[in-house]
Design goal:
This protein is α+β, with helices and mostly antiparallel strands. The chain contains 17 helices and 12 strands. It has 4 domains: 193 residues, no CATH class; 88 residues, Beta-Lactamase (2-Layer Sandwich); 74 residues, Signal transduction histidine kinase, dimerisation/phosphotransfer (DHp) domain (Helix Hairpins, Orthogonal Bundle), CATH 1.10.287; 144 residues, Histidine kinase-like ATPase, C-terminal domain (Heat Shock Protein 90). Strands 2-1-5-4-3 form a 5-stranded antiparallel sheet, sandwiched between helices. The radius of gyration is 51 Å and the shape is elongated.
Length: 552
């Protein structure tokens, strides 16, 4: 504790303050008592000053011994103060209050223990002066000396009870002074140590943060609430081609302009891709807060994604080529069977041995297979076709449901039971043929799942959606459900679990739903079944007629 308290600066101030107090002591003595009566005794003060300078010199040369030097000085000060107070009027004179200054100073420089020890020492000095006043030692004091004159200054009307009470009061207050000053000194010292530690940690954290910021590969630009550039790291200066005088140059960049717009705009995307001099930057913008949680400015993190963008483009090209390959393979497979049938029928017709009935049958087969090939090609063209849905044609979804169910029952439905629950005739804008295609694609998947299920059943429902302004088409089957590993790829084009499937049914269905500003969701539970829900916006209430023939 003493090593912390007695720093060089505090030690110097202690010596300066000590000499000032001694000087004031001498000055007050001269003013109140006169130089002639106390001049010889006050020469002791000069000796103490010289001794203080000498001890301070030793302290500066050998700081390891500083504790005992301070103790010596405080003890000498206590003795000196006792002598001077005795000469200046006794223990109940006006200068006794200097003991409070002495004890307080000891507590400040020596802590609680030092303040308490010096308080006890000063109390003993006061008690000794009071004892001398009422002891027989006064009678044996040599006459004709300075001590004789000193003793004659003691008032004769002071009672013993008064002196005892005086001493006890001083002892109590000196003890309190020493304890309080020592405690405050140590407490302030501890708080100072904590504050310095916190400041040191903050400086270290700031240094580390600056080093981390400078070492980032991303560029970081920060502006304050007034739009003034605050800081930019090394990568940011390199990305924006700025030199040491970056504050002037950064204000002329698109990044700075964009960041200011982000700061002022109420709604603006926080991630923007920006092209600068053949460089593609991903800019992530945000605000940073002060210690009170208020906005202190805005910042942007700039990432050079030129290489990533190029790799992504190459990957997309590869995926596109792979998709074309899969498309070609699937088309070849789908078209091969109809072509084989057409080729066989044409060969039989070429032989010319058939009657007119068989000839008509072969001709019908060729026509049917040609139509099948046309449908396959049309389905694949759907993948790349842009939406051409007319939002001026009104469509009855009840008619869509009934038509799709008829197609399923007459075509691919097989032995599967199909039911419908229609709450009302909801009107939407769109293309009826495309919506029928959406519903039949979903139902075809359900029928294929239920092929080996006894009592397989499909329920087609039309009801108002829980989402305001939407109508919901749902197809539920009581099949085995969709496994999780299949569910994650359920909408991927060309993804199929069937040997001869194209993997386009649900993909096209979802595309039709999106073309009608709707959405498509699938819920499936193992052993319970699967429900496909399609939500489409309802036409405004003033539309009361529906076009049932599709787009004309």
């Amino acid at each position: 504790m003493y090593k912390d308290i007695l720093t060089m600066t505090r030690r110097t101030w202690f010596q300066v303050g000590r000499i000032i107090v001694l000087g004031l002591f001498v000055l007050f003595g001269i003013l109140f008592l006169g130089w002639q009566s106390v001049g010889k005794v006050y020469s002791i003060v000069g000796f103490v000053v010289v001794l203080s300078v000498f001890l301070d010199f030793l302290f500066r040369r050998n700081q390891k011994e500083r504790e005992w030097q301070v103790w010596v000085q405080f003890i000498l000060d206590s003795i000196l103060a006792s002598v001077l107070i005795r000469m200046a009027g006794g223990f109940d004179g006006p200068f006794t209050a200097f003991f409070f200054i002495h004890t307080f100073t000891a507590g400040v420089f020596l802590g609680i223990r030092g303040g308490l020890v010096i308080a006890v020492l000063d109390s003993l000095m006061i008690a000794s002066m009071a004892f001398v006043t009422f002891s027989s030692l006064i009678d044996v004091t040599p006459t004709g000396s300075a001590f004789e004159r000193l003793m004659h200054t003691v008032p004769s009307n002071i009672s013993f009870q008064y002196a005892l009470l005086f001493v006890l009061i001083y002892v109590g207050f000196l003890t309190i002074t020493g304890l309080v000053s020592g405690y405050l000194s140590q407490h302030l010292l501890l708080e100072k140590g904590r504050s310095e530690g916190i400041l040191r940690e903050l400086r270290e954290a700031r240094t580390v943060s600056r080093e981390i910021l400078e070492s980032l590969s991303d560029g970081i630009l920060v502006i304050d609430n007034s739009g003034n550039p605050v800081s930019i790291n090394h990568s940011g200066r390199e990305i924006l081609s700025l030199g040491d005088k970056w504050r002037e140059g950064v204000c002329n960049t698109d990044i700075y302009t964009m960041l200011k717009e982000f700061q002022l705009a109420e709604s603006m995307p926080s991630v923007i891709e920006l092209s600068m001099d053949n460089t593609i930057l991903e800019c992530r913008m945000g605000t940073f807060l002060d210690h009170e949680g208020n906005s202190a400015g805005a910042l942007v993190a700039m990432t050079d994604i030129t290489e990533t963008f190029e790799l992504k483009r190459q990957l997309q090209e590869q995926e596109k080529l792979a998709a074309i390959g899969r498309l070609s393979s699937t088309m070849a497979h789908e078209i091969r069977n109809p072509l084989a049938s057409m080729s066989g029928a044409a060969h039989i017709l070429q032989m010319g041995t058939l009657d007119w009935k068989k000839t008509d049958r072969m001709t019908e087969l060729i026509s049917h297979q040609a139509k099948r090939i046309s449908e396959i090609i049309e389905g694949y063209l759907e993948l790349s076709r842009e939406s051409k849905v007319s939002y001026t044609n009104s469509v009855s979804l009840a008619a869509v449901v009934n038509e799709a169910i008829d197609v399923a029952r007459q075509g691919f439905g097989g032995l599967v039971k199909i039911e419908s629950h229609i709450e009302g005739d909801f009107i939407v804008f769109g293309n009826q043929a495309r919506l029928v295609q959406l519903l039949t694609n979903i139902m075809r998947n359900s029928v294929e799942v239920l092929e080996n299920i006894i009592d397989g059943k499909i329920i087609v429902s039309l009801l108002k959606s829980s989402i305001d302004g939407m109508v919901e088409l749902s197809v539920h089957d009581n099949g085995p459900g969709i496994p999780d590993d299949v569910m994650v790829h359920i909408f991927d084009p060309f993804f199929t679990t069937k040997k001869e499937g194209t993997g386009l049914g649900l993909f096209v269905a979802r595309k039709v739903a999106r073309d009608h500003r709707g959405r498509m969701d699938i819920e499936s539970e193992s052993g319970v079944g699967t429900t496909v829900k399609v939500s489409i916006p309802i036409a405004p209430p003033d539309v009361v007629t529906a076009e049932t023939g599709g787009n004309k």
